[in-house]
Amino acid sequence: MKISARNVLEGTITEIVKGATTSHVRIDIGGGIIVTASITNEAVADLKLEKGKQAYDVVKASEVMVGID
């Protein structure tokens, strides 16, 4: 796989929580760090994602925001 994104994190799928149209896929990238991605249920099926399978988190965003009160 060759892509333009530079933030590619390899890990293991620990959980897939399916909703009505989207799933939350949790990937353990090591050191106790879990990254969660929201993707369509169709993408989960197309990629044949399942718990325990190796996968990549690919991060390509123009901004990431965090807020607190």
What general form does the structure show? globular
In the CATH hierarchy, what is the class? Mainly Beta
Sketch the major β-sheet: 4 strands, antiparallel
Give, in spatial order, the strands making up the sheet with the most strands.
Answer: 3-2-1-4
Distance between the termini: 41 Å
* Element string (H = helix, E = strand): EEEHE
Helix content estimate: under 10%
Instruction: Indicate the low-confidence ranges by residue numbers.
Output: none
Strand content: over 45%
Rg from C-alpha positions? Answer: 13 Å
| The CATH topology | OB fold (Dihydrolipoamide Acetyltransferase, E2P)
Mean pLDDT: 92
* Annotated CATH architecture: Beta Barrel
**Number of β-strand runs:** 4
The number of distinct structural domains comes to 1
- CATH superfamily heading: RNA polymerase II/Efflux pump adaptor protein, barrel-sandwich hybrid domain
Structural class of the secondary elements? mainly beta
Number of helices: 1
Keywords: Molybdenum
Organism: Mesorhizobium australicum (strain HAMBI 3006 / LMG 24608 / WSM2073)
Pfam family, one: TOBE
InterPro entries: Mo/tungstate-bd_C_term_dom (IPR008995), Mop_domain (IPR004606), Transp-assoc_OB_typ1 (IPR005116)
Keywords:
molybdenum; OB fold (Dihydrolipoamide Acetyltransferase, E2P); 4-stranded antiparallel β-sheet; mainly beta; Mop_domain; single chain; 1 helix; 69 residues; 4 strands
